[in-house]
Design brief:
Layout lengths: L8 E4 L4 H12 L5 E2 L11 H10 L4 E4 L7 H6 L1 H21 L4 E5 L28 H21 L2 E7 L1 E3 L12 H14 L4 E5 L5 E2 L1 E3 H13 L2 H6 L7 E4 L5 E2 H12 L4 E5 L8 E2 L4 H5 L8 H14 L1 H4 L3
Parallel strand pairs: 1-2, 1-3, 3-4, 4-5, 5-10, 6-9, 7-12, 8-13
Antiparallel strand pairs: 8-11
Helix pairs in contact: 1-7, 2-4, 4-5, 6-9, 6-11, 9-11
Pfam families: Epimerase (PF01370)
Pathway: Nucleotide-sugar biosynthesis; GDP-L-fucose biosynthesis via de novo pathway; GDP-L-fucose from GDP-alpha-D-mannose: step 2/2
Catalytic activity: GDP-beta-L-fucose + NADP(+) = GDP-4-dehydro-alpha-D-rhamnose + NADPH + H(+)
């Protein structure tokens, strides 16, 4: 079935890293009617405002990329903010989509939904089979609730609400805040400043041994649109009952030490790396089983080094605004 490029698509969270990438790629594919709203124009935590927004627009599809996100420090410091805001955003948007007869919706989750000691690589079936990582449990619970919201509206009302669970994302429009960012933007900023200051040593949180998988946000956006464009028969043939979410990743991981060494190469840092083992490591390993997505015809194409170079170039070009997010 051909894709209708004139349908009205609402991208929630279009100013964020993932949402902006989705908008770019939808435009590149020829979609002509993409609607967005800034936080000043629409507070997604305000149920009445979200409902009114959907009533005012004849929306055909939704990409729900809006979320409150952050690294270990931010999750530890603001747990109430993370669970409340994410629960409100997804509940308001998903319910308003249903009430206003939006049949197709894409919910973007996170790999942190899986147990801390999930079997590696993590298949979709690992969901709810163990204890979550304590440092981001409130955020993870909110994302699990989003998956279950989509599943529940599908079961009760026959909606076509799909969920994708990305691995660790990075790229243009990332958050480079010195305390609240994820590992890649934090390292890119720290190594950049070390080069600028002629520092001899860069100290990195943790032991350097945890394994992590990283996906460039442009690959994430491409995968999301690919899954959304799949016809209903193809999608359902690959989706088990009560297991509607799909992992998105590269299927390749590296240690934090290896990541730091690659960031050093990309930024030109030639000094020494030190690891502070008194700081938390988080989950020992997080590698996604992406076989279901491969069966649906999509694989990542951007290598880690190439992706890091792209992210660093964006940071250099936007350093005044990116550094203070």
């Amino acid at each position: 079935m051909p894709v209708d490029l004139n349908q009205t698509i609402f991208v929630a969270g279009h100013r964020g890293m993932v949402g902006s990438a989705i908008v770019r790629q939808l435009q590149a594919k020829g979609y002509t009617n993409i609607i967005t709203a800034t936080h000043a124009e629409l507070d997604l935590c305000n149920q009445a405002a979200v409902q009114q927004f959907f009533e005012n627009h004849q929306i055909d599809q939704v990409y729900l990329a809006a979320a409150k996100v952050g690294g270990i420090h931010a999750n530890n410091t603001y747990p109430a903010d993370f669970i409340y805001q994410n629960l409100m955003i997804e509940a308001n948007v998903i319910h308003a989509a249903h009430v206003n007869n939006v049949q197709k919706l894409m919910f973007l989750g996170s790999s942190c939904i899986y147990p801390k000691f999930a079997q590696q690589p993590m298949a979709e079936s690992e969901l709810l089979k163990g204890e979550l990582e304590a440092t981001n449990e409130p955020y993870a619970i909110a994302k699990i609730a989003g998956i279950k919201l989509c599943e529940s509206y599908n079961r009760q009302f026959g909606r076509d609400y799909r969920s994708v669970m990305p691995t660790n994302l990075y790229g243009p429009h990332d958050n480079f805040h010195p305390e609240n960012s994820h590992v890649i933007p934090a390292l890119l900023r720290r190594f950049h400043e070390a080069v600028k200051d002629n520092a001899e040593v860069v100290t990195i949180w943790g032991s350097g041994t945890p394994m992590r998988e990283f996906l460039h946000v442009d690959d994430m956006a491409a995968a999301s649109i690919h899954v959304m464009e799949l016809d209903d028969t193809t999608f359902k043939a690959n989706t088990q009952p009560m297991l509607s979410h799909i992992n998105v990743g590269t299927g390749i991981d590296s240690t934090i030490r290896e990541l730091a060494e690659t960031v050093a190469k990309v930024t030109g840092f030639q000094g020494r790396l030190e690891f502070d083992a008194t700081k938390p490591d988080g989950t020992p390993r997080k590698l996604m089983d992406v076989s279901r997505l491969a069966d649906l015809g999509w694989k990542a194409s951007i290598s880690l080094e190439d992706g890091l170079r792209d992210a660093y170039e964006w940071y250099l070009n936007n350093i005044d605004s990116a550094r203070n997010k």
